[in-house]
């Protein structure tokens, strides 16, 4: 395969510097509590290396969250990511003893970094709080003791002033979460301290995804403090309408965020508060109350079936980083898929020893070498693993805009964005594939291509980076985001035109790769798993493999609820309802199940599928 050598992405230090200067944040303001401003300056200029946890904290403080598909890291950082997941998974599985052991190991390995130590301390606090539920009341931690634990964690990276004011501070979402916890356990009557956090979250640098993690929690904590101080009774009897209206406004904003991002962080709690406020409020709110009750019932019913708690009980979800890939493993798998010898890959890039050490996780290499190897293998590289290769922020923003418009089915506008992207993107096989992929999607959706021609063009597009034969014949595969999307698009066109066998043929390589995932593997790669396995379950049902389809759908639903994601739950409930109806042919039961699909569509703001389910019920 011919390789068009691309300019490597700017190193992450330059990305941080560009963003910091754009937001007019000083070195001292960004580095506060993490490192000296001098060390940050050296990182920005590429003269100092830094661990991934600290880099992530810096980028989070800047709100540098792009529409990306995970990231590539060297083995040491990949191993740390897996250790974090071990801790989180143990806590959420109520294996507190195991979690403590993993935390001790983590501290021994990574004690030199304050960001890492803060993570370990937070996880210890989660363990203590979980244990509080099982010990005698006399042995349980008091609010004051919990407050002191959060204070210790907070002061590792956050100036003391954050305890009383957030003014002129640049904090990440997980740091703000610690501030929230500290203020909640330290405040007896000062609800304003929690309200300040809501105001801070309105700062434009935070993405909606980041806000949806903390805003609902802050609203819930405000309400709990109100209950603690008896203010809720004033709302219920109408004596304090002003505060009631204010908390209702916050509640609705939180609910809107949860629906838009399709996550369930404090979703049940927000709905319960909403119900209380609707009952106490003025005006005709009967329909809203009915919807709230139905959503609550749907959440409780599904969580109960899966053996899961419907409430959010810990802060682990702030540290769930998804889709992180070990560069050495990716290079090894991809090289073998393409039938490349080591010499063909390392030639003009690095030495044979460097490549061999990289593939066997014995040593890393310079990131520019790793990016060149990935590019030669037809994979997008860079700090963020996007579908394109670029170092330009304006191009990244255009790319993000294109993805948003395509989700909104605004394909005429997509074409305009894609034309501009084509001008801005450098010429390499990854970018060329993305442009052709995007153009094909737009042309098909604007009815300029029939589905047979579309499949042919998508197959040619796939061949820019990898032959379909290499994918279908490989037992172990690694595909880029765009390559997986192309396979999905081809498969979907076959399915929706009645050729389920061909549809399964094209999705099977991805299905086969994900099918063997353990529970923790699924959590680590939830985005791929929920999307592609949901589609595979639908095809299997169409092929009459109802039991296999149901097993997959149930597995996806459980994994999503555990992770805190709800997009696509409606699709898996629909697949299982369809499978059952094919066997039982009971229209009444099928309609009842479809109504549950409608409720979950509403909770994730998915009007497209909501309308489809309503049409099926008529």
In short:
The protein is an all-alpha fold.
Descriptive account of the structure:
It is a single chain. This protein has 618 residues and is an all-alpha fold. Helix content is 68%, strand content 1%. The chain has 32 helices and two strands. Strands 1-2 form a two-stranded parallel sheet. The relative contact order is 0.08. The model is unreliable at 1-10 (pLDDT under 50).
Keywords:
single chain, 618 residues, 1% strand
Which parts are unreliable, with pLDDT below 50 for 5 consecutive residues or more?
1-10
Multimeric state:
single chain
Gap from first CA to last CA: 53 Å
According to DSSP, the number of beta strands is 2
Task: Present the secondary structure layout.
Layout: H1 12-22, H2 27-31, H3 37-44, H4 52-61, E1 71-73, H5 75-92, H6 96-110, H7 114-132, H8 143-154, H9 173-186, H10 192-201, H11 208-228, H12 231-236, H13 241-261, H14 267-280, H15 286-305, E2 324-326, H16 327-337, H17 342-346, H18 352-359, H19 367-376, H20 393-407, H21 411-424, H22 429-445, H23 451-462, H24 468-473, H25 481-496, H26 500-515, H27 519-524, H28 526-542, H29 546-563, H30 569-584, H31 587-603, H32 607-617
Parallel strand pairs: 1-2
